[in-house]
Design brief:
Layout: E1 3-5, H1 10-14, E2 21-24, E3 31-32, H2 36-42, H3 49-66, H4 73-84, H5 94-102, E4 109-110, H6 114-123, E5 127-132, H7 136-146, E6 154-157, H8 158-161, H9 168-178, E7 185-189, H10 192-200, E8 204-208, E9 224-226, H11 229-237
Parallel strand pairs: 2-5, 2-7, 5-6, 7-8, 8-9
Antiparallel strand pairs: 1-9, 3-4
Helix pairs in contact: 3-4, 4-5, 6-11
């Protein structure tokens, strides 16, 4: 499967329109985070801890937003690493281990389909921006290394919004920065929780199914589903 609508009913699918602006999630959607596992093994921690640590990082960011507070992703990530690795037999000092793992974010690469997909979307005249729960500096470095930084109009972070995605305030911030209405924009993400938040905020949505997992029934479906960014660009080219 390359790409398919996720809405039920042909009428809904026919009403999908090409967005003026695509808002990209960054972590895992554009960046390949699989090398983070090696960062854990480098310091003597189990590789599987990478996935549970990142899930916990997101959980705590969501929780802070839910109670009206916020914190930087880097600060939450470092704090969680210190607590989760405190009892492990590491090959270096705990502080050095935390620093080594966190620096892994700065060396990540894009998924193989991203450069071509971004180019195809630019040729369609769609404005491209990012909205990450992380740092815009990391996104900038990611795109600079791949040579596509100039394809993005803006690099946005929830740090400036004061609330993590999927809170409505985060998407409203992106819309205000891009000077568009939610109906004119489409979020592209691998995270169903991000799709849920953007859809409730009035944006169009596209889910990149990079894992091959089924979409959770407890979240509203995305408007479009694709396995790669290039496939999504092809589908958007066929609609107005």
């Amino acid at each position: 499967m390359g790409i398919a609508p996720m809405r039920s009913g042909n009428n809904d699918y026919e009403n999908i329109r090409r967005p003026h602006v695509i808002v990209f999630d960054v972590n895992e959607t554009l960046s390949d985070m699989s090398p983070m596992e090696e960062r854990f093994t480098d310091v003597g921690a189990p590789a599987h801890l990478a996935a549970t640590w990142f899930a916990g990082l997101l959980r705590d960011g969501f929780a802070l937003t839910a109670v009206g507070s916020t914190a930087r992703m880097a600060d939450i990530g470092s704090s969680l690493l210190r607590s989760r690795m405190a009892g492990l037999s590491l090959t270096c000092d705990l502080g050095e281990a935390v620093d080594h793992i966190m620096k892994g974010f700065a060396g990540l690469d894009l998924h193989p389909d991203v450069v071509e997909g971004v180019g195809a979307l630019c040729r369609l005249g769609i404005r491209l921006v990012t909205l990450t729960n992380g740092s815009t500096d990391l996104a900038r470095g990611l795109f600079e290394r791949a040579g596509i930084l100039g394809s993005f109009e803006r690099l946005l972070s929830v740090e400036a919004a004061g609330a993590w995605k999927p809170a409505p305030k985060a998407y409203a911030y992106a819309m205000s920065q891009c000077d568009v209405q939610p109906r004119e924009a489409m979020l592209v993400a691998v995270h169903p929780w991000d799709i849920e938040g953007a859809g409730r905020a009035g944006l169009g949505t596209a889910w990149l199914d990079r894992s091959g997992e089924s979409y959770p029934d407890h979240f509203r479906p995305a408007d479009l589903q694709a396995e790669t960014l290039t496939a999504l660009a092809e589908r958007l080219e066929s609609i107005e």
